[in-house]
Amino acid sequence: MDRFSSLKLFVRVVERGSFTHVGRELGIGQPAVSKQIGALEAHLGAQLLSRTSRGLQPTAAGLDLYESAIRILEELEETEGRIGRKSVKPSGMVRLATPPALGRMYIIPKLPDFFERYPEISIDISASERRVDLVRDGIDVALRVGALPDSTLIARKIGDLHMMIVATQAYLEHHGTPVSPTDLRSHNLIVGQTQGAVQPWKLNGPDGVVMLDPEGNIRSNDVEDQRAAVLAGLGIGYAGRAMFSQDLDAGTVVSIMEDYAPEPSPIHVLSVSGKRMPQRFRVVIDFLAEICAREPALRLTR
Q1: CA distance 302 to 292
Q2: Left, alpha or beta for 76 (phi > 0: left; psi -120 to 50: alpha)?
Q3: If residue 79 lies in a helix (H) or strand (E), which one and from where to where?
Q4: CA angle (73, 133, 107) in 5-degree steps
């Protein structure tokens, strides 16, 4: 058995989650892939993969082998690049978790430039407002908005989601324009939720920070639903400026109560700690940081 080739094949199977997909990509057929992985398991005396509803998933032994194999293969590529005096392009799959709105509005439109630079990388996007468990869900890199709990994950702050209080012109003409947190109590507020808990509004006023628990007749855990509710004239929203950038430019909505500018919400990129980070993860993280640096609504607050 060629152990080096078997390691490369095993890494690809873990990243694709399917013997069939890998066989099709390599032109060798599913049975040949299955046979080679079976031989590797027999050689190591351990089950490396198990079938789940999500496809093939690595066992604990398989995950250990995968992480070691990634290090070995990337170190070999870098060594070959140094000796051969050539640049080795990063390659392979990166599983990226991102809030749906940021993915749709900012990440996906920039992917053509990324793939032009790194044609050997594939990105598997998992879009969810839920805070995914990187290890349990098999995520390599996660984009997260908001304060971070203590964890063993590597976190890099790459931006700030600049927040605002927002409403349509039509809503304000009909209900009046609030100028203070007290005024907001007489308005219908669009309520955001995270895992069932209401998201408080944190306002920076002339006399310090004011915390407000919003009340209204519509609530949602999805920022795009909250945006739609504001655009429908249902009430006043508390949202990232990035979500309304086009609407602001068009004059459909206006930012109000700017004397009580909300606290920016930090944007972090997370990855699993304790392991040497593969080059393909690093370039994806740098790509996400570039996006935030170029977008005023996402740029780091200095």
Answers
A1: 13
A2: alpha
A3: helix 60-83
A4: 75
Q: Name the CA dihedral angle for 276, 278, 281, 287, rounded to a multiple of 10 degrees.
A: 100
Least confident of 9-23, 36-50, 236-250, 271-285: 271-285
pLDDT tens-digit map of 213-226: 999 999 998 888 99
d(CA 137, CA 134): 5
Q: Residue 37, Cβ neighbours under 10 Å: how many?
A: 21
Determine how many CB atoms are found less than 10 A away from the CB of residue 249: 8
Residue located via tokens 């640049």: 87
- Which residues make beta-bridge pairs with 218? 190
Backbone angles phi, psi at 253, to 5 degrees: -130, 165
Band of pLDDT at residue 166, cut at 50, 70 and 90 = very high
Across the strands, what pairs with 270?
Answer: 142, 155
The distance of Cα 248 from the centroid of its chain, to the nearest Å, equals 25
The token duo for 56 is 């093939």
| Domains, the chain, with CATH or none | 3-83 (1.10.10.10), 92-159+266-294 (3.40.190.10), 163-263 (3.40.190.290)
Rounded CA-CA distance 234/230 in Å is 6
119-162 residue pLDDT tens: 999 999 998 877 777 877 778 899 998 888 756 678 899 999 99
List the single range of 22-31, 42-51, 85-94, 158-167 with lowest mean pLDDT. 85-94
Tokens, residue 1: 């058995």
- Average pLDDT value for residue range 64-92: 75
Higher pLDDT, 86 or 52: 52
**φ, ψ of residue 92 in degrees (nearest 5):** 110, 180
pLDDT of residue 151: 65
- Calpha distance 193→214 (Å, rounded): 10
Q: Is 235 left (phi over 0), alpha (psi -120 to 50) or beta?
A: left
Which H or E element spans position 168? strand 163-168
